[in-house]
Amino acid sequence: MMNILSPSILSADFSKLGEQIKEADQAGAQYIHIDVMDGMFVPSISYGMPVIKSVRGVTSKTFDVHLMIMDPIRYVKDFVDSGADIITFHLEAAQDPKAVIDEIHKYGKKAGISIKPGTDASALDEYLDMVDMILVMTVEPGFGGQKLIPECAHKVRTVRGMLEAKKLKTDIEVDGGIYVENVSQLLEAGANVIVSGSGVFKGDIQYNVKRFLDILGN
Ligand code: DX5
Ligand code: ZN
């Protein structure tokens, strides 16, 4: 299973967003993680379709869009049209998660489902064979720069076990508080798509990406 780095642009300098995405791209990051917040599902508001559209032209890397919004089915088409390749929504925010997955697949995009730290892994069970990726949050969603909640590594292990029991090789993404210093425990637990915001965009972007990729070691 391929390990992937998905730098979260939430920690980028938005006055140079295009250039910073290019730096992450050139250093070898495979995905670009784009956090969309609605001020309802999470307290903060980040950015939406126009921003995604405007940076779609600067890279051909996979746009990994993480929707932290209520009732995400309403906006699937808009994010597809903006250039999303993977659309991940929160189980807690959807009235009918299967309908959201079907809507994403209808447009030929990859569907991810996410759970917050307080949601039990078992809540994912009925969706495991429908999705392309599972996002296990390692902080409370809403802000960059938080500290990783250590128990979340255990949840990753549980989800990997649930997938293996069904003979599924689905990607597991982890997001929040991840740095080169603590990423190994998540890889060992079974995660293979690594999001990092502060760990990539604070400081030397190219250097940070390369250090992560050394550890991810494909
Ligand atoms: C948090 C977002 C994360 C965030 C990660 O709600 O989903 O993607 O940008 O940032 P760091 O790596 O700084 O915790
Ligand atoms: Zn995210």
TrEMBL record:
Its cofactor is Zn(2+); Fe(2+); Co(2+); Mn(2+). GO terms for molecular function: D-ribulose-phosphate 3-epimerase activity; metal ion binding. It comes from the Bacteria. Binds 1 divalent metal cation per subunit. It catalyses: D-ribulose 5-phosphate = D-xylulose 5-phosphate. The active site is at 35 (proton acceptor), 175 (proton donor). A divalent metal cation binds at residues 33, 35, 66, 175. One of its GO terms (biological process) is pentose-phosphate shunt. Substrate binds at residues 8, 66, 142-145, 175-177, 197-198. InterPro entries: Aldolase_TIM, Ribul_P_3_epim, Ribul_P_3_epim-like, RibuloseP-bd_barrel. It is an enzyme of class 5 (isomerase). Pathway: Carbohydrate degradation. One of its GO terms (cellular component) is cytoplasm. Its EC number is 5.1.3.1. It holds the Pfam family Ribul_P_3_epim. SUPFAM superfamilies: Ribulose-phoshate binding barrel (SSF51366). Keywords: Carbohydrate metabolism, Cobalt, Isomerase, Manganese, Metal-binding, Zinc. HAMAP family: RPE (MF_02227). Belongs to the ribulose-phosphate 3-epimerase family. PANTHER family: RIBULOSE-5-PHOSPHATE-3-EPIMERASE (PTHR11749). Catalyzes the reversible epimerization of D-ribulose 5-phosphate to D-xylulose 5-phosphate. This is Ribulose-phosphate 3-epimerase. It comes from Butyrivibrio hungatei.
